[in-house]
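[step 3/7] fold_predict: job queued, chain A
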Amino acid sequence: MYAIDYQIPLVDLSKIRLPHNQIPVDEQSPLFDEPLVNLKGYDLPFLSWHAVTDGSNDPYGKAIRGSHQEGWLRKTVAEKLERANGLLKPFNAELLILDAYRSIECQRGLWHFFYERGREENPAATEEDLRQYALGYVRDPRIFNPLDSRTFPIHITGSSIDVTLRRRNTGEWMNMGSRFEEIIPISTTDYFERQLQVGTIEENDERLWNRRLMDWALRSEDFLNDPILYWHYDWGNQIWIKVKNAIYGNAPAKAWYGHIEAPEWGVEEQV
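[step 4/7] structure written:
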């Protein structure tokens, strides 16, 4: 299907699930204070999934409080992503970024959404039950301290993306096997690699190859995937360090991207 000799590595999820928030951030790194840039200036299609207002953004069905229409990332991260996106042109494919820098206000909006959804599903739930339910989807922003890297939601670093593939000529989303934000076993990145191993899918399964294609392009620029979710990639932050150590065992001791203040959002861009 695609002219690439590539397979997504199988990952021991027990290693990946180790906490990343104990990894320190190197404030002396030359990249620590690197600014955010607006993705409008790059060949990087962006759709803010949390700011969609027509109800099509499952599972939310509405814009999340604190979300924004524009996408921002650290400058080096945007440049690397643009190069990775260029590799996809011969395949009539392109990256579609669905979440980039996420403000703490948006993180609070997401936490509220899942906390209240947990209450709707189980009216008898205790506060701890609801906290644990929400933690299954999003990091708790109530503990956030901009001076304490143990409390950082990872998207607040400006070096994480949620991403999928779409057809370059039509804009049609490519089949990745499960929907974005659908947290089910099929969304584990190597799911179809394992299905191929046991013979339940064919070698030419488009879901297998679409995930391979996206992973190949992003790894060409040293982005690493959080293997629990096929759509989440990082570079230079705490999760990137954790995954690199789990897979390769040769990560730097510290991340270089930590919390960064929100950009100057346009007033009309805030939801």
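[step 5/7] annotate
The domain at 13-269 is CATH 3.30.1380.10 (Muramoyl-pentapeptide Carboxypeptidase; domain 2).
Residues 104-121 form the longest helix (18 residues).
exit 0
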